[in-house]
Structure formats: structure tokens, C-alpha cells
Amino acid sequence: MSDIKLLYIEDDEDIQSIYIDILNEYANKVYCANDGEKGYEAYLTYKPDIILLDINMPKIDGLTLAKKIREVDKNVKIIITTAYGEQENLLKAIELYLIKYILKPIKIDILREALSKAVDEIGELRGESLKHIFLLDKDILWDSKREVLSNNGKEIKLTKNERRLLTLLSSDKNKVFTFFEIFNHLSYDDFDKEYDANQIRALVKLIRKKIPKNSIANVYGEGYKFNPIR
Description:
Helix content is 40%, strand content 21%. It is of the alpha/beta class. Strand 8 (148-151) and strand 9 (154-156) form a beta hairpin. It is elongated.
């Protein structure tokens, strides 16, 4: 997804710093504000695609701010966080057409789910697709377009063949790739290399040390299949 802008409004800068790396996985540009007034100014300045904001903020509370923004912008994706599970706040939030209402402390998998939903909806509006982003577990992402594997926003280093293997398998997650198909993809620039299925097994074993083991499924007698959780 190109040019996704996200605005994070949270008065606790320590909490903000915890989630910045994750937000950067889903947005090209992440802007921060520490109170409701600055948050609204940042909204007007940057016109973000996604807003992540806390309910309990100084100057303008999160629900009031979200309502103010929603009155002029029906498309921006809003995710609200709060330390309180008050029914009254939840009912008010429902009226704002939110992506998610998340209770603190924020669970990483719930935040990722909300961000993925927001980005998917933006993609639908733009006629784009995020089929190249795969979630391998609650923290590990594989971006087949950029060929980048990351854990909580931090890149996991891959060898050339590890990267090629993940790129091939994720090109069609419904397909079982045979040993010979994998060999051809790995060695397309090395014509003198001799076919050896054991080398492919060894490569899979190595990459499984960097990703959840079940992300690459063995299909007995056939080969391997990509198996992300999303």
C-alpha cells in the first residue's frame, strides 16, 4: 500500500514509544501528538488515513475529538484506546464508526488486527490490494513485495536463498510447490547447480529458526506450502 499516513494521539509518550515500530509497519508516515488540541491541528495539517487515539487526553478528550473529526471526514479510519471499559464510552464510540475500540494495556495482536482492517478498507477505497502482506504470528510479518521479514517492526536478516524461498512460497499460498520447482527458483541464476532435494530441506530447516515452524508446511511426497495465519 503506497502513501498511508497515520496519526497517533496519546498523552503518555512512553506508551507512544512502545508501539511506534509496529505502526511503521502499516503506515509510510507516522505522526504523533500528545493532547487533543495538538491532535486536531495535526489532523488538519497531515490529513491522515488512520487515527489511533486515546480517550483520556488533556484539552480535548478522545471521544470529543473523534466526533469533531468525524463530522467533517467520513473516510478516515479511527481506532480508539482507553484504560476504562465503561459501557457509556463504548456506546458513544459505536456511533463514530470506529475500526476498533481497544482496552489498555493494548495487546499487540489486537492492535495489529485493527491496523490490518483499517489498511484493508483503505485499499478497497483506493482499489489497491495488500495481498503481499502476510502475518506469520502476532509479531512476525512477511512483506513479499519488499521481500522483508520483520518482528515487531525490526527487520530479520535473511540470506539470498531464504528470501527467494519465502518469495516463491508466498506467491501462491494455496499451492504446494514441489522440490524441483523450488530448486529451479533458487538456482535460476546458477545454471551449473545440480538438483539436490536435501539442500532444500536444509534451507527450510534454517529458515524455520527465524519464523514459526508451521509457517512452511510439509506436504508429504510433494513439497512445501506457505501457511501464514493471515
